[in-house]
Amino acid sequence: MADRLTGVLLVGGASARFGSPKALARIDGRTLAEIGWEKLAFCDERLAVGKAADGLELPFPLTDDGMDTRAPIAGLVASLRAAAHELCVVLPVDTPRIEPETLAALAAACEDVAVPQTGPLPGAYRRTALLVLERRLADGELALRAALDELRTRTVTIDPAELANVNTLDDLARL
Length: 175
What we know:
Layout: E1 5-10, E2 26-27, E3 30-31, H1 32-39, E4 45-50, E5 63-64, H2 72-82, E6 87-92, H3 100-109, E7 113-116, E8 123-126, H4 130-138, H5 144-147, E9 153-156, H6 169-174
Helix pairs in contact: 2-4
């Protein structure tokens, strides 16, 4: 891959349906945060982005998103601002089955954005998307999916099993 790459693990979120911080939930003795961090090990730089106020005890540093808003777009904006590299692969902590090769494929396909068929996350985002994302966030337009319509977005078909998402304790048990 020609671009140097920042891997971003989004660990924020209210976890309202889950009932406790998803980042600390465990599969086979490891937290979802640890699993996600390992998935991003192929990147030139890794950032975990969330809310410092949540007080999550993580085995790696957390970059505070510095925002009151709890929405993926807030974490994404903070990530693109903090990243050392122009291109980021962004992985939500609740998607533990994605493979590093799949994340690399998203990065390779990225113009402004590359996403799977299911929507905006996980995804690859270039800093060129930042102005649109910042504007939408400032305007209170928090739907990340809607922002994709304003950006050069490519869709990459990904095995649905890799996109398994943990929103509830039942979802966690199934994984």
